[in-house]
Amino acid sequence: MSTTYVGVLELAAGAVLLSAVMTLWRRSVRAIVSMLRLQGVALSVVAVDLALHEHEHALLATGALVLVVKGVAIPALLRRIAQRDPRSRESRPLVNVPASLVFAAALIVLSYVVGTRITALAPSVVTNLAPLGLATVLVGYFMLVTRRHAVSKIVGLILVDNGIALMTFLLTSGVPLIVELGASLDVLLVVVVLQFLMVSMRHHSATDRLTEMKALHD
Amino acid sequence: MGLYLAALGLCAVAAAAGALLPRRRRVTPTALLGALGCLAALTAALRILVTGDAVTFHTAQVLPLTGLSLSLDPLGAWFVLTSAFVGVAACVYLVGYAREGLASRTAMAMFMVFLLTLVAVPAASSVMSFMFFWELMALSSLLLILADQSRHPEARSAAIWYGVMTHLGAASILLGFLVVAAGGGQSFSDLSAQSSAMSPLARGIAFLLILLGFASKAGAVPLHVWLPKAHPAAPSPVSALMSSAMVAMGVYGIIRVGRDLLHGGSVWWWVVVSLLGVASALYGGLHATTSTDVKRLLAYSTIDVVGLVLIGVGAAGALGDSGLGSVAHVAMMGALLLVLAHAGFKGALFLAAGAVERATGTRDLDLLGGLIHSMPVTTLVVVVGAGSIMAVPTLSGFSSEWLLLQGLLHGFGAASTPTVIVVLLGVVALALTGGLTAVAFVKLVGIGFLGRARSPGAAKASEVSMSMRVAMIWLTGAGVVIGLVPGLLVAALDRAAATGRARDAATGLAHGTGLVLTGLHGAIAPAALLGGLVVVMVLVGVLNQRATQRRVRRVEAWGCGRDEQTPRMQYTATSFAEPLQRVFADVLRPQADIEVTHVAESRYYEQSLAYENRVVDVVEARGYRPIIDGVLRVGRGARRLQNGSIHRYLALGFLALLVVLVVA
Amino acid sequence: MSADFWYGALATLIQVVVVAFGGPLLVGLMSKVKARSEGRVGAPVTQPLRDLWKLVAKERLHARHASVVLGLAPTVILASTVVAVAISPLVSTRPWLSSSADILVIVYLLLTGSAAAALGGLDVGTAFGGMGASRAMTIGALAEPALLVAVVALSIQSKTSNLPGIVSATLAHPDWVLGPSRLLALGALLIVVIAETGRIPVDNPSTHLELTMIHEAMTLEYAGPELALATLGEAMRLGLLFSLVANLFLPWGISTQRSVMSLVAGVAFLALKTTFVALGVALIEVRSAKLRLFRLPELLAGGFVLSVLAVVTGLVAR
What we know:
The complex is a heterotrimer. Chain A is an all-alpha fold. Chain A is 78% helix and 0% strand.
């Protein structure tokens, strides 16, 4: 029982980080969004797995919430944005893809260095996985900085949020439902606002690439 | 000790012979005396490595004030072995090589002095003796770089770079020694006793200062900039000595001071050493793939290998500090074996580069090709050397890299995070450079020696003289033996790696022909692997002959239907490395120019097309140039003081006198 | 001579024979799967073996300016692969020299084969040979880090880089197989295997246009028996890599006891597992298009990151 619980936890936490790296790897916006969906599902698996092991019903509810908002709703919304232009791609990121990947590897090593200091405070099989969450945050931030497409930017933001959620799940064995609810709804709101913005952006400048918007219009 | 002193004496006599003998009778006796001295040093070092007893010697006659102190322990003996091993080859090579260009009094004498210092530095056992030999080594090699400057004008700028870097390095080492020796005493045993009482901060500062000097001699990035200039500019036997033995002296210094005199210190020292190693391995490997000058390629590959050695030394230090003494021992043995193996194959490759330059008049791979037909022995030497450095199993580079990787691999069990990071980065660097080295050396062999000649010089090449061939074959053959039966060296390696450390008996290498780790799970048997390869190749060859029974028919190669193909259509070294250069453009920053001249009548037809591709050293261009420019600006500013007026000079002198009086 | 020695000899012999026939059959199987999925009937699965037989009987032709290297390269390619096959844990964990079957030995034996192929390509002194050699070495150099780091991830877990040691350790700890570190390493290794065996999306093994060739351009000048040797070497290398992937991640069925029956079972299981891997790779080939040469670094850098990820998750999850 206990080994299965740890095994599932490791796999799911690994999947969260893996999907973050994959968003750097893939170019098509649709593929990036589906990676985000995978990450939302993996994150909710982490929460549910912890909840089942520790018999915390509140955490179970949080897991369900994560699944609904991050595994279903947000990816679906982003997918709708992406589908308006099915061929939309992250064509020329500010840092090219191989360099991004190597940089991501360095970030992962860095978060291992820093993360093990945090986990050394209360070492256990669960908290030891926290560096994976930190790595997800860093990869997400990197994505936010280096990608041009508006959807990629928002995906980077969500990666950061997911990474923080993973860390809190692993380190504190769950956040209060209300906090997670607030955070998730915030992100959802951002996505909805983005959807409106993108529509008007296309209307004005026929592009999704933020680099081309340099001057402020009135 | 007697034999070792005799070896030093023979080298000194050889230097005197080089300076005194008339030109016609100079080269052969001098070179043979030098070779004899190296052989004696080789034997003496081997004897110490086999018995494990350190020998010491002190005389007040040679150096003023302090006298000369020598002491040869197994660690020092390992490096004497390395130097003497290449030294023998370099001397024999010199017999054939020196007739053109290196036969002058200064060059011959300096060559032997250089040899003497290479054999003496690892035995020096006091600060004064060490610095004496160290500076003599720098000076003699500096003069040797200039020996051939009439033919290689770039040697002058290389010598300036080398001179400045090596003297800054020596100053830094001396400062570091001063910090340690502040308590009085200058012999290494005094320093060793005093350093235990020093504060961690003072020890750290001393180590950093000394590391700076030694790392620059070893060619670690970012202190490497002189190396790819100086090693190619020197005459080939000197390049061989510099690249395989002098570079090892830097490594020796780091091990001696860090592990022995300062007793290991704290883990961050070794993190710094490994980071230097990782940077050197990657940077050297990358530049080796894009270099087209044979000797420049070899020089960058030296930086690469030094990086791997430093990774091993750094990992050994860090692991030793985090309680994994036995694994640290394995990593150290890997690093030391790599130093010896590298001396063998890189020495042979540099000598072969000299042979190619002699035979064809060029070192540019883009102008070579097809040398396998005219220079079969040199080609074989290069193929074996390239195979060793690419770590083809059964050759010497492989055994040492395997040992190094075993040390790193088992180091992942360390509890401290910095140590795990050192090990992780080491593995990643090892993995990244493996492929790059393969590209660089397939390019060297494939473009330089196979295919068809790309220039008239390469087309009319012929094999070099007997002594040069013998020297190359000695290094290659000894390297092959080291690779095939590394077990022969296990006892010696064990003693050398254990110097300055409490020995952990649990882990090491079992005695035998191959390498078998005791206490950890891992083994290789190169000789058996080679046996397997040979059996399969012979079987296949026999079957191939039997099955076909026909002679080989020569036909024209496929050229897409074109009748005749010219050598100009072949891939060149530049084009071979172009894909990788493009992949790593962010790091290498290559510059390419295309110049098209059109015919007068129409701009749709080109008259000529010139393409130039340069890869400059980014560290030099971005890191050193601004400093040099700054110094030059200050210099130009100071020139305003000098207008030739005698009155102004006198006034300035008077002013200075007044300032001194007031301040004092 | 002890019983262990003779058992080892038998295991080695069986492995070499199985891979020598199995490698070409896997190649044939993959082309069959591809043909079927494209709606063609395709050549029989045994076609690569027939091709080899046909080539052996042909005349030996060498390019005019080639040296001995051209004739020697196919032999070295084959010999390095055969030795790697002979000592690796494929059918049994205890063939000859299995104590030397270190990961590094296998990796560098394969690298030796690639270097020999590249030198053979450069030896003829034509544009195509150089082009193929340059591209193949570039891909090899980029795939090498991912390969080494991925296998290091496996060896950290098993505390040895000896392949039979890793296989035995995995047999003893079946829960490792589904750990994140293993799965990430598997992903990295699959990318490397596709690159090293020259399959789509890295290289197209059935191309006939010189400019798009990578591996084929190097072997363009081989004919008759030498082409057969080089082709057999490549097919065996594919068989070896597929078998290693299968055995490192699903080691069950490999013979660990000293009995002939277990060897027979080992052969059957190996055939099953490698067929499975070949079907997987063939499906990847069918579903993807060949990448441009300068897009390949993205793929291989991805493999590298996966392998680094495998090491780091292995470190945090232990």
